[in-house]
Structure formats: C-alpha cells, structure tokens
Amino acid sequence: MGEIKTFKNNNSKDFISFFYEIVKYATLNLFKEEKSKVLNKILKKTVKFMNGVVGNIRIYNSRTKNLTLIASYGTSKKYIKDKKNIMIGESIAGVVFQKNKLLVVKDLRKSRTYIKPSLALEKKMVSLISAPLNIGNEKLGVFSLYYPFEKVFTRKEKEIYSLLSNFIALIITIQNIYYELSDTNIGIIKMIVKQLEEKDKYLKGHSENVKKYAIMIGKELKLPEEEIKILSELTSIHDVGKIFVDNEILNKQGELNEKEWEIVKKHPEIGAKIVSQIRRFKDGISIIRHHHERVNGNGYPNGICGDDISLIAKIVSVADALDAMLSDRPYRKALSIEQVKQELIKNKGTQFAPEVVDVALKLIEKGKITKKS
Ligand SMILES: [Fe+2]
Ligand SMILES: [Fe+2]
Asked: Cα of 300 to ligand 1 centre, how many Å?
C-alpha cells in the first residue's frame, strides 16, 4: 500500500493494525452496544488514525428526507443540537450526498464553490474530506473529516478514506437489518399481547397503562435516556409469558388453586425466554423476569430481594400494581386513589422498593396518576 505520509501512523502496517482494531471492536460490540455508540467509537478511532480533528457521520432518513447526524467527534454540543438534521444539497455533507461523489477541499477559506460550513467556522477547520456512504446502489449517508490546516489528499489517502467509508456503510447496513428484524419481532410480540388483553375486559389496556406509569416513574427518578427507552419497549410486553397460560386460568372468576397458581407464576420466566431471543434488549430482560419479585424476597419466580432486583424491574413492579389497583377485577371494584396510596405505603419496603413508592406517591400528589375515568 506504500507509505501514507499524512496519517498519524505513517505506514501501511499501522493501517492494517488500525483496521484490525476497528473490525475487532465492531465484531465484539455490534449487537451489544447501542447503535450510535458503536458508530461514535469507530468514528473516534478513525478520526484519530486519519490525524483529523473533527468528524461526523450523517444518515439519510427516507421519511424526513433529512441527513441526520448519528455520530460525531470533536464537535460542540451546540453544533450537535443546531445541525442535527440538514437537507440534501445543504452544507457540504448535503452536496456530497446529492452528487454521490467523494469530495476534498484543500482550503475552505479560498474555496469559491463551498461556503464555509458552520462546523468549520466554529472549530477553525481549513480542509476536509467527505465521502458518501453507499452499499450497492443504496445511498446511506455521508462521512466527513475535517483538518485545522491546509491539506492535500494523496490518491492513497483517498483510497484509504473510501475503504473506511465502505466499512462504516457496512456497519450501518448490518445495524439497520438487525434493528429492523428486532423491531419486527417486538412488533409481533406486542400484537400477541394486545390480542391476549383484548380477550379479557379486565386486562384490556393493562400493558400500555403499566408502560405509562413506568415511564412517568422512570423520568421522575431521572433515569438515563437509554433506560427510559428500555422501559418503554419492554414494559408493554412484560406479561407476554401469559400467552402460555391457559385462558381458563387467566379468566377464572374465583381464587386460583395451588396448581393453577404455580402455572401463573411461570409467566415471567417464559416471557423472559421469549424476549431474550432479541439480543438488543438483553439489558432490559429483568423487567420481564423480575416484575413480580418483592424487595423482601417473597416474590416470584426467583425470590430475589433488595438490590438483586434491578431498579427498572422495581419500577415495573410498582407500575403493574398501580394499574391492577386502579382497575376493576372480577372479584372487586377498582380502589380509590386514597386506598391506592395506603396500599403503597403499607407495602413499602416489603413488596415494593421504598424509593419507587416515594416517587409514585409524589406523582399521585401531583395529580399525574389518577383514578381511571
Ligand atoms: Fe405479570
Ligand atoms: Fe402485569
């Protein structure tokens, strides 16, 4: 490959070891880490290797027809906020996407064709290289790299840059396929849960209500965005394991006998097994497996207690109970808001996590959780 002078590590051996490193990282983390986290890491490594200072990756959104910033390195928070979406033809990335051709600008200050983009102005960038991200005929987005000095890109550098762009395009494609597949699977599971609830007037809307309460509590507890996302996706299917519980048992009017109760108690494990097939939600499986655990260890299926139960599972446990208490059941009418408060207080520290109960009570006080109309 010859010498690549302007790279920080200036020989092809270094390129091979760099490439080996990012391929290895991607292979190990592609399905483990969140989509943009993987791209951000690859971008950071790439910018550093290419001796650049600022880099970004934009992906084309066919719905909004925008190029959305999905990964960036060396940019300011303001840039990320202001320039999250750009239109095709707008700014340099927009032009590169439109023309579908690699672009290099040696000195943006002297360029008559290109207005200095805000990113370059803000960070005092002088030169750039920008390439479309393509897989076959499909245009996925744009990958751009900026330098704070005048830079002439050699043919070899452009080749390396194109190769890295192809690698990034490949990663994005694999992510897209994987996410589409897992979204489809989750969609099917949601449909099954809905069907299950539709058949039972007492369960109708249960999962969506639990989701609503869980998100409210999670936000009040200031959980990170990623955990709110997990709560939102998995709470609506927390009872999916019930599809394997006989309808007769689920709809039984009177009390369950011991054998029937044993069957019902299996639904968290069964649900967890179903959803664990979708690796992307691995971190949230505890929502499904442990939403009937109690902090004193008297719950099911595993009888774990205290901090062995994840916070998200503790939240769903309270959210689940809130919806149950606020709904009519075959054997009783819905509880009043005052009764719900008393139940939460009574079971605080035994069934429910105290910190979650406190937040639920606060939400009731604020009138955010009310009796259903
Ligand atoms: Fe359940
Ligand atoms: Fe439930």
From this structure: 10
Distance of CA 237 from the midpoint of ligand 1 (Å): 10
Ligand with an atom nearest the CA of residue 319: 2
Could you read off the pLDDT of 125-164 as tens digits, one per residue?
889 999 999 999 999 999 999 999 998 888 888 989 999 9
Please tell me the pTM assigned to this model. Answer: 0.74
Q: Is residue 187 in some structural domain?
A: no
| Residues 6 or more apart whose Cβ sits within 8 Å of residue 314 | 295, 352, 353, 355, 356
- Domain that includes residue 120, residue range: 12-177
* DSSP class per residue in 240-308: GGGGGS-HHHHT-SS---HHHHHHHTTHHHHHHHHHTTSGGGGGGHHHHHTTT--TTS--SSS---GGG
The CATH number that applies at residue 139 is 3.30.450.40
Ligand at shortest distance from the CA of 293: 1
Confirm whether 373 is domain-assigned: no
Co-location of 170 and 204 in the same domain? no
